[in-house]
């Protein structure tokens, strides 16, 4: 897929992977619109990369999403919707069976899953009208095997992975030209993972892997260790589960 002269909307684009993606897409000649909840972060991103178009919008808010569609229409529309925004609620030491955890799970599901569906539904007609269009949904290796300390985040990403496959097949059946990509990253060095001491890749490396996958039109794009994990987990699921849930995570559950 050629990214030059494409208009790309990146949710959660004011920091981390989203901002790095915005930078690299701009370098490739794309027009980039970023969204985020923090106006301060959006303003900072705009100062770093003046060519960016920054719009404050919360993907977990239905009203914001509708207003975003109207604003993007005013800007001439998009060719690619990159659903990058996600939240991870820190695990509660009360365990998974409590009201506090349920509230966190609802928030994760609203942003990581329902918000993606809402945006896709809003933008589908616009994308359908384009000569070459795509949707990129970001899942996780945690959609292939769950994390004990991030159980509901894993669940939200698993739901998104199944939805992405269904959406791709549905659009294929109706003859749509929209390409559906699933991006499966490993652990990436961002604010969300700042307290993790596990092996991470940089956001720069992550986005380079994404762009390579888009160019080669790999509908499922696994980057870095996500490729190896997929093979290990399919052949030896117990080992895969153990990789994501080392003994040190068991201690966190006991504390």
Automatic annotation (TrEMBL):
A family per Pfam: adh_short
Xref: PANTHER family: DEHYDROGENASE/REDUCTASE SDR FAMILY MEMBER 7B (PTHR44196), DEHYDROGENASE_REDUCTASE SDR FAMILY MEMBER 7B (PTHR44196:SF1)
InterPro entries referenced in this protein's UniProt entry, alphabetically: NAD(P)-bd_dom_sf, Sc_DH/Rdtase_CS, SDR_fam
Signal sequence annotation: none
Protein name: Short-chain dehydrogenase
Coiled-coil zones: none
Protein family according to the UniProt entry: Belongs to the short-chain dehydrogenases/reductases (SDR) family.
Record keywords, A-Z: Oxidoreductase
């Amino acid at each position: 897929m050629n990214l030059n002269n494409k208009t790309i909307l990146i949710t959660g684009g004011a920091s981390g992977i989203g901002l790095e993606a915005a930078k690299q897409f701009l370098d490739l000649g794309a027009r980039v619109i970023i969204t985020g909840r923090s106006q301060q972060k959006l303003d900072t991103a705009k100062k770093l990369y003046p060519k960016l178009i920054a719009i404050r919008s919360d993907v977990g808010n239905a009203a914001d999403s509708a207003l975003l569609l109207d604003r993007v229409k005013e800007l001439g529309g998009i060719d690619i919707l990159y659903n990058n925004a996600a939240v991870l609620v820190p695990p509660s030491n009360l365990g998974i069976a409590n009201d506090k955890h349920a509230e966190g799970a609802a928030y994760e599901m609203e942003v990581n899953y329902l918000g993606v569906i809402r945006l896709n539904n809003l933008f589908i007609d616009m994308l359908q009208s384009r000569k070459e269009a795509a949707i990129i949904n970001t899942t996780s290796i945690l959609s292939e095997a769950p994390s004990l300390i991030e159980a509901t985040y894993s669940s939200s990403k698993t739901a998104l992975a199944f939805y992405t496959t269904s959406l791709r097949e549905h659009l294929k059946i109706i003859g749509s030209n929209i390409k559906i990509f699933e991006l499966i990253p490993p652990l990436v060095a961002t604010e969300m993972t700042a307290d993790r001491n596990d092996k991470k890749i940089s956001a720069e490396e992550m986005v380079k892997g994404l762009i390579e996958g888009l160019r080669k039109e790999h509908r499922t794009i696994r980057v870095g260790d996500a490729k190896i994990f997929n093979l290990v987990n399919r052949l030896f699921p117990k080992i895969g589960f153990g990789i994501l849930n080392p003994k040190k995570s068991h201690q966190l559950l006991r504390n």
